[in-house]
Amino acid sequence: EVQLQASGGGLVQPGGSLRLSCAASGPGLPFIFGIGWFRQAPGKEREGIACIHRPDGTIGYADSVKDRFIISENNAENTVYLQMNNLKPEDTAVYYCAGGIYCLGVPRINDYDIWGQGTQVTVSS
Question: CA-CA distance, 96 to 114, in Å (whole number)?
């Protein structure tokens, strides 16, 4: 069993930055090879925005966040981070981290079956 806990959301002005954390724990963690970040804005479908393939560090980003968001992992702390820079109002959403088998480009919801609770990110002046 694996537990994922996302944190770090909040209110930020356009152009600002936030860093989200996804803390992973549980005996099944060594078998979770992909950690992905997803977001869901009001009235919209959940979308994958970034993922990391833990065995080799392969990373994938959605075009909407590429060059602004950075995903990274601290193996010692079993934590995956999402550094979000130059935030825009359209980035406002609930952000989720999820565990799956792999990361191949943009994360797809069906490839991830372990989900943490979401953390709200609001970008507004």
Answer: 10
For a pLDDT cut of 90, what percent of the chain falls above it?
A: 86
Lowest-confidence segment of 54-58, 62-66, 87-91, 97-101 by average pLDDT: 54-58
Q: Which helix (H) or strand (E) holds 48?
A: strand 47-53
What is the rounded distance in angstroms from the CA atom of residue 103 to the CA atom of residue 48? 11
Q: Which residue shows structure tokens 């799956």?
A: 100
Helix (H), strand (E) counts: the chain: 0, 11
DSSP designation for 91: G
Report pLDDT digits (tens) over 36-51: 999 999 999 999 999 9
Tokens in use for 105?
């480009």
Confirm if 87 and 14 have CB atoms less than 8 A apart: yes
Ramachandran region, residue 30 (left: φ > 0; alpha: ψ -120 to 50; beta: rest): alpha
